[in-house]
Amino acid sequence: MKPVELAQRLAARERPAGRPVMKQRWSRLLFLHWRIDPDLLRPLLPAGLHLDLHEGEAWLGVVPFLMERVRPVLMPAVPGLSWFLELNVRIYCHDDAGQPGVWFLSLDCNQPVAVELARRLFLLPYQHARMRYGGDLTATRYHCLRDGELDEAVYEYGPAGEVQEAEPGTLEFFLLERYVLFSVGRNGRLFSGKVNHPPYRWAPAKCDQWSTLPVKWDGLPEPQGRPESMLWVDHVDVHIFPLRRLALEM
């Protein structure tokens, strides 16, 4: 497959046609990334998706954050349902047409209703977990323990520099500017779902404690050493669009 062109990456940020089905805010985001052997990741992708590389290298991400004001369009947020925590393990891919996006290996969440709805409506591998957080924007402490696991993943993080937007073509742009998720339904049918939000305003992250346990929970070897990229985002308001089936090239 040809590499994804920069114009295709920029086009992915445009608002999709049609109406969104949900609104939500993502806040206190921490993006941790490690370089990883592409041959380890390619078998994880279904037919019709291809590993997306930055300058020939593959990346694995662990992203803890807060989900806030989650609700269907035209409905108010509901206390106890619309605020919860999420932590995802992700890799980067594109479809046959070169549309770049995210393939989630897992999404831990402490809201049982959200887990079940996301599994059914967006066909995503959500996992039940016990999670909590504390601190403030400058120093967030975040805990995650997936159901059935013994050890807890802990993150302590905050901003460590000036807030900025990612420049097209940079590693930060490649890792952050993702507006398409891919998922698989029955009989291996491939779907894509789009989100729309302003470009992330990110800062370098100070991360005093981090964990690769969610990677291990997903059955992969844990990355070694410090994350090679650590980025922090205050918040972003997001529109979620419905899934659409992808046609595979023959």
UniProtKB/TrEMBL annotation:
Q: Which PANTHER family match?
A: DUF2071 DOMAIN-CONTAINING PROTEIN (PTHR39186:SF1), DUF2071 FAMILY PROTEIN (PTHR39186)
User: What is the name of the protein in this document?
Assistant: DUF2071 domain-containing protein
InterPro entries (UniProt xref): ADC_dom_sf, DUF2071
Q: Which domain of life is it from?
A: Bacteria
